[in-house]
Amino acid sequence: MTQDTTQATKTAIVTGGGSGIGLAIVEKFIQENIKTIVIGRDEQKLASAREAFGELCVTISHDLSDLSGIPALVEQISREHGRIDILVNNAGINLKKNFEEVTDEEFQRILLTNVTAVFALSREVVKTMLPLGAGAIVNISSMASQYGLPKVIAYTASKSAIEGMTRAMATELSPNGIRVNCVAPGFIATAMSATALNNDPERKNKVMGRTPMGKLGTPADVADAVYFLSSEGAKYVTGTVLPVDGGNSIGF
């Protein structure tokens, strides 16, 4: 899908864009002629994305938990690519462990990547958006913030924080033309989730039983929602959390 960069209408940053939902978001943006800067840690996945999507896909290898490097990273992107129109905070890590066994260090590690790094990157990108009076930020949450899931206490805390941050950011930044929204994916068919559910029939039955649409979503379903919230089609939408979950969060 090689495209000419002269076609680019906007510039977006997508974190954790090398695989799964992040990769689907990158693909959707590039289909819409948006130059997409993919920030990730896995060099091999980044190289595959570049090869698949062509010139509109720019990759940067950076560990966002290294907070001190974020201001220079955003400054470099601004210098090399001009204005940043869209930021998608997709990168995140998880830890599945009994509540009483989670250490302080493990809890903090999840919050560092899933919350603090999102805050720091958003802050630096917003500094470039404010003078333009325009911009769209889309954060990625999870069903873990919609209801209680066992054995993911740190992840749940982090995604609940993301939804609160989304509302606070939207209230403060929207008067300056910067919209901030959030997508909360349900159970999405990725390689990771397929393995987890197929190895746990009871969990899979529970997931399907409370999902009114009776099926898993696809990464493209989430990507379409992210694109909508970052586009002119959502120009009067800010501070929302949009579940893309086949009704799972309201199912019984």
Automatic annotation (TrEMBL):
Entry-linked InterPro entries: NAD(P)-bd_dom_sf, Sc_DH/Rdtase_CS, SDR_fam
Superkingdom of source: Bacteria
PANTHER family linked: OXIDOREDUCTASE, SHORT-CHAIN DEHYDROGENASE/REDUCTASE FAMILY (AFU_ORTHOLOGUE AFUA_5G02870) (PTHR43639), SHORT-CHAIN DEHYDROGENASE_REDUCTASE FAMILY PROTEIN (PTHR43639:SF1)
Family: Belongs to the short-chain dehydrogenases/reductases (SDR) family.
Keyword Oxidoreductase annotated: yes
Lineage of producing organism: Bacteria, Pseudomonadati, Bacteroidota, Cytophagia, Cytophagales
Name the UniProt record assigns to this protein: SDR family oxidoreductase
Organism expressing this protein natively: Rufibacter hautae
Pfam families membership: adh_short_C2 (PF13561)
UniProt entry tagged with the keyword Oxidoreductase: yes
MF term (GO), any: oxidoreductase activity
Keywords linked to the UniProt accession: Oxidoreductase
PROSITE patterns named in the record: ADH_SHORT
